[in-house]
Amino acid sequence: MRKRRSSAAPPLEEIAGNGLLHRRALLSGGIVLAGAMASGAAATQAAAEPLKDPPWSLQPGDVTPVLQTPSRFEKNVVRILSNPKGEPRTQHARAPLQYLDGTITPNPLHFTILHSGIPDIDPAAHRFVIHGMVREPLEYTVEALLRYPLVTRKHFVECGGNSAGMFSNAPLQATVQQLHGLVSCAEWTGIPLSTILDEAGTDPKATWMIAEGADSLLVNRSVPLQKGYEDAMIALYQNGERLMPGNGYPMRLLLPGFEGNMNTKFLRRILITDQPAMTFYETRNYSPLLPDGKAYRFYFIDEVKSFITKPSFGMNLKEPGYYEISGIAYSGTGTITKVLVSADGGKSWGEAAVEGPAAPKAFTRFRMPWRWDGQPAIITSRAWDDSGAVQPLRADFVAKRGETEEPVKSPYGFPNQHYNSLTCWGVDAKGQIKHVYV
Amino acid sequence: MLLAALLALVYSPPAARAAANTPGLGKPISPSDLKAWDITVLPDGTGLPPGSGTAAQGAKLFDDKCALCHGQGAKGGIANMLIGNPSLTAHGIASNKTIANFWGQSTTLFDYIRRAMPWPAPRILSDDDVYALCAYLLAGNKLIPEDEPMNAQTLPKVKMPNRDNFIIKFPDRI
User: Fold this and answer.
1) Of chain B's two ends, which shows fewer C-beta atoms within 10 Å, N or C?
2) For chain B, where do the domains classified as CATH 1.10.760.10 start and end?
């Protein structure tokens, strides 16, 4: 006879300071509720009123549209534009990551950066060529490429300049979207680039490929050829539908884990060479300056990173009691294996639940049950991946990479590139959340 | 039947095997058909076209086509400063990276101006125009003499002052 589970919930153990609870609390709502009640959070239980039918239950609803859009009550879940009038400069659209959950960024909300607007490309007239140090230069139509064997993989794409405001010497008071919104994660479907490289037949002496888009600037980047054979893809679909125009329709290069700008959108040409082209973007924008005036070159990889999306700046806690701390972890060097969360500014840490199976070079969602006692707290997260990489603490990061001499005023500027240290949210006794450094 | 298929794959001649492994739907394209798109310029000068231009020619072109965004004398406007040599540590890690103080290769100028500029109407400049603009910007930054024309031979030889101040971040990925 199976033993009946006791209805008396065991007391919840705190695994780290300031109320972080064991992640097993996530598996049993009953335990958590008991814990929350014990901590005096009964205030959440407003006096019940007799139920009645609301207006939408009393008449038929709206006509079904061909293309669904979110509820009108979700109007704030939109991207933030850096250049809404389309002035002659780059346009950034930052993803509202603090309002999303899970690991997939919906296509209309996926971040985009366009250096000269979104080209209106007719897929029937688009051409892709591969040439240079190859056995045979080849031209492809999109129609032909759609007949190839396709693969589907989940990967994040992150701008090399994402989180640039974190280089500020004083913490910018800004939301997750403003600070970290230039990263998104999607399920991409396309052709392994190695298939096309093999068809053209690359010269054994070739070491680089120069990818070029069909936008008006013909944005180009040099990519090591070994990445082309490793896991590069010509992506045609994004989360099951054809690419969004801002994400590279009708086809883009996808280089898992490499900075967004290298993932050439509107891909129209790959030149196989034995040297990098030193294009404008790799020469200037994506060569981060170091404190001594030297600079990194070929900073391809977006390294291991995590941040808490909920609760975060802009979402104040109304009362003490139970909250779930939740966030995103990802790494351009592998698969997330562990995320630690702290509620006391890094004095003590507890291991968060990592939703699995974690995919390489993709968003991983972490969750940590938390009972906030109403006292000041500082919540933060730190991630590890299976290559052994660990997210650097801010002091170590700043010692190596530096920070600005003056506070950064706008979260939309780019004082430097490739920030992957921690993000800390300070909760005061009123439940107000500020961005803090520890 | 599966076994037979596997055997057929294993024992087919190499040419047939290649054809079976990839769809092969690309169409061979000739260098002449590729010409209009074959515009990449490499640091050793590969890809630079015939033609030539001087700083004096470039100055006039700059006023007409570039100064609106990049400012009079290329000192910067709504777009980047192109002539100017501020210290790379003047504002710490947020210092302004310019052609004179930062760029490692001179050929980047030709590749980028020809493909992307002027921003509202790219690729209206002739190759001579692009060489002239390269000469104007390099002479303005005191990286070449005022009267030295830029062409496929001279441009790649221009030594950029900051070329040796870069650290390859991930050498094992190249």
Assistant:
1) N
2) 40-163
From CA A46, how far away is CA A49, in angstroms rounded?
9
Flag whether pLDDT at A39 surpasses 70: no
**Cα separation, B160 vs B155, whole angstroms:** 11
Interface confidence, given as ipTM, is 0.91
Write the DSSP assignment of A90-102 as a string of letters.
-EEEE--GGG--S
Give domain limits for chain A.
Answer: 305-436
> Looking at the domain A305-436, which fold is it?
Immunoglobulin-like (2.60.40)
- Interface subset of B 20-59, CB within 8 angstroms of A: 21-31, 33-34, 37-44, 46
Give the CATH fold of the B40-163 domain. Answer: Cytochrome Bc1 Complex; Chain D, domain 2 (1.10.760)
Instruction: Indicate the average pLDDT of chain A.
Output: 94
What chain B residue is nearest to A193 in terms of C-alpha separation? Answer: B22
> Whole-angstrom Cα distance, residue B14 to residue B16?
6
User: Which chain A residues are Cβ-neighbours of B100 within 8 angstroms?
Assistant: none
Q: Which two tokens stand for residue A147?
A: 């007949």
Is A231's Cβ below 8 Å from some Cβ in B?
no
Q: Would you call the peptide bond into A149 cis, given omega within 30 degrees of 0 as the criterion?
A: no
B14–A contact, CB cutoff 8 A: no
Task: Provide, as residue numbers in chain B, all residues whose Cβ is less than 8 Å from the Cβ of A402.
Answer: 92-93
Residue whose entry in the numeric block shows the structure tokens 């940590």: A368
d(C-alpha B119, C-alpha B116), whole Å: 6
Cis omega (within 30 of 0) for bond into B118: yes
pLDDT, tens digit, for every residue of A185-215? 999 999 999 999 999 999 999 999 999 999 9
pLDDT of residue A27: 66
Token representation of residue B43: 């640091």
